[in-house]
Specification:
Layout lengths: L1 H6 L1 H8 L10 E5 L2 E7 L5 H11 L8 H8 L5 E8 L2 E11 L2 E9 L8 H15 L4 E7 L3 H10 L2 E6 L9 E7 L4
Parallel strand pairs: 5-6
Antiparallel strand pairs: 1-2, 2-3, 3-4, 4-5, 6-8, 7-8
Length: 184
């Protein structure tokens, strides 16, 4: 019985974890000489997030409305922010903290806003958040065939960790990528 309970110790710590983070404050930022607004995601934003997902993932929806709701209402430390250009959502990111890992759960930038530094900006916000939470690493999964996204992650410092076969619903393989935060 004692061995079985040990298996669940990390889950118990995760669910008993107290919130020591605050909501993301709305702010105006400049990225490549363009002004944007960044703020926390709320329920009424989910329709826009699903629209971006549908556009970026060729009609597919990797996340459902209920998945977004579950994440933005979690009691565990998390960051779910979006970026607006003239009050139109152009990108978003999600990061959840589990133990000492800041896990990027979802990131997408609308096709018309890609290549303008928005994805890198959002990733850096997530990295700052994870560092403030005491994380020693960041992690994410990306489709093995998505070389463009892998390139963006590598420029920020992520390295390949492992391949998980059949990870995605469509049977595609995932590449897990890690960013070491322990060097400050």
């Amino acid at each position: 019985m004692r061995v079985t309970l040990k298996k669940f110790e990390s889950l118990r710590r995760l669910f008993k974890k107290k919130s020591n983070w605050q909501a993301f404050d709305r702010k105006t930022v400049t990225i490549e000489d363009k002004e944007y607004t960044v703020r926390g995601i709320v329920e009424s934003d989910i329709k826009d997030l699903l629209t971006i997902e549908r556009e970026v993932y060729n009609g597919e929806l990797p996340w459902t409305r209920s998945a977004f709701l579950s994440e933005i209402h979690s009691k565990n430390p998390h960051l779910y922010i979006l970026i607006l250009k003239e009050e139109k959502t152009v990108g978003f990111i999600g990061c959840r903290v589990i133990e000492h890992d800041g896990h990027i759960t979802n990131v997408a930038v609308g096709k018309s806003a890609q290549g303008q530094g928005i994805g890198s900006y959002l990733l850096n916000e997530a990295i700052q958040f994870a560092s403030a939470q005491g994380c020693t690493q960041m992690s994410l999964e990306v489709k093995l065939i998505n070389k463009h996204a892998q390139s963006v992650y590598r420029k920020i410092g992520f390295t390949s960790s492992k391949i998980t076969e059949g990870y995605y619903d469509d049977g595609e393989d995932a590449l897990e990528m890690i960013l070491d935060l322990s060097n400050g």
